[in-house]
Amino acid sequence: MIARTRTPSVASLLFALKGSIIPVIWPRVLYTILFSLLVVVLNGYAFSLHIGLSAAPLTLMGLTLAIFLGFRNTVAYQRWWDARTLWGELIIVTRNLTRQTLGFLADQDEPTRRQLVYRLIAFTHALRHHLRGSDPTDDLSRWLSADEAADALATPNRPNTVLGQLGRAYTGTAKQTAVDPILLASIDAQISRLSYVLGGCERIQGTPIPYAYILLLHRTVHIYCFLLPFCLVGTMGWTTPLVVGVLAYTFFGLDALGDQIEDPFDLMPNDLPLDAMSRNVEINLLSLLGDTDLPAPIQPRDFVLP
User: Does residue 97 contact residue 191 with C-beta atoms inside 8 Å?
Assistant: First the structure.
């Protein structure tokens, strides 16, 4: 996720590249500008050709394309925001469970309660790796016992396995300390909310925007930008490449931005900072346990928070 000041300077708004869509789309924009320059040269300057078109196709396609892009980017942002809401739920629930562990299971020994909280941290890391397709071995080995880590790594859905271990551990510990069934039900409700978070994240990751819609949108954007110089050359003359470049930047940029935020769990600059949020869970839960030697929050690197 891009991490910049809330009141950026005009210079950073105009010339910043990190977090901008320019590094992704500049080859397409450059190609469009060069092609429009060729159209200008051919239109009455080099070979006395007149290849200008009416502005009617440009107007009709531009209106349709704007509607398509607006709808697609709204859907993509909704997916991004749903993912952020689910991870916000994860942060809240892990805090609640840690508080309940320390309060409801106060008669239990400190290492047992600490191990319960460590499983919550392990679930957070397992979910991050599950969504990004990365290797969770180091994180699971750090927060789980050797047997539990091996069991989790042997399954395809690691966070679901860790969640099952967590539920069994809380139930067994509650029975040992004779916790009131109402309090145990409250703990189980929080664990169920973690299962809801897992399922919600898997729903977002496993249900992309239909490919046929994306394909139609990509093709329409390219056709529109291809027709731009033919529709503008008659009135804009040698300024056509400049105008075409601005319009191509807008439409190609909106198209590429939708591609980036469609999968909010990816590693693109505008995706969710799952590493930073996982580290925040560690810091919050360890501080509730009374630890003072806490890991440092993850800081942005080159304005990108991973």
Answer: yes
